[in-house]
Amino acid sequence: DVKVTQSSRYLVKRTGEKVFLECVQDMDHENMFWYRQDPGLGLRLIYFSYDVKMKEKGDIPEGYSVSREKKERFSLILESASTNQTSMYLCASSKTDTDTQYFGPGTRLTVL
Amino acid sequence: GEDVEQSLFLSVREGDSSVINCTYTDSSSTYLYWYKQEPGAGLQLLTYIFSNMDMKQDQRLTVLLNKKDKHLSLRIADTQTGDSAIYFCAESNRNSGYSTLTFGKGTMLLVSP
After folding, report:
1. Is residue A35 exposed (0-12), middle (13-18) or buried (19+ Cβ within 10 Å)?
2. Which of B29, B101, B107 to mutate to test the interface with A (most CBs of A within 10 A)?
3. Which residues from chain A sit within 8 angstroms of residue B31, using beta carbons?
4. For B66-87, how does the pLDDT look when each residue is reduced to its tens digit (9 = 90+)?
5. Which chain B residues are closer than 8 Å to A92 by Cβ?
6. C-beta of residue A66 within 8 angstroms of C-beta of residue A54
7. Any residues with CB less than 8 A from the CB of B1 and at least 6 apart, and which?
8. Which residues of A touch B28 (CB under 8 A)?
9. What is the largest CA-CA distance in chain B?
């Protein structure tokens, strides 16, 4: 079974803090993705990575950065958290030869 | 660009069949997906269909694909209260050279006893 884990289920941070969200997958998938999910807006792709040290911008990359130093781990970084980044963050992974993405349980981030 | 549309809400009684509909725009999509999300959880892959198929059945789930109309549907037979969740339709894209998915906004299914 594919397993995607995220470092925290719930996180509360203050405006201006630097925030790290971690995602780990154990199935040797090449591709990893970060989404945010907001009511009425569905899932929006922030960044994705198709290989170690590679990254591509998604639809809403502003205010975020990512890091992929190891194949199994993909980090989402909020350099200076703002209240409009309060959201549910979902990580996913997939193999290059299929399009099927497998999701982690999500991190609900609240920025005060 | 790619776009996936779904109705936002469906309410059914326990034991009835549920049909959730979706339209998509990318005719080159290789796969089309249905994911389920329970409250506070991530997305769980329910089923998918390859674009050269018309139908796929998996226990209580039936997926129908009308490629001409770019219409996808998910039928859940004998719907149970445990099926209450948000259901997302997604199409695969390789237009940028990378494998990505475009999701609809989700259909909330409410099953009443």
Report:
1. buried
2. B101
3. 98-100
4. 999 999 999 999 999 999 999 9
5. 43
6. no
7. B25
8. none
9. 47
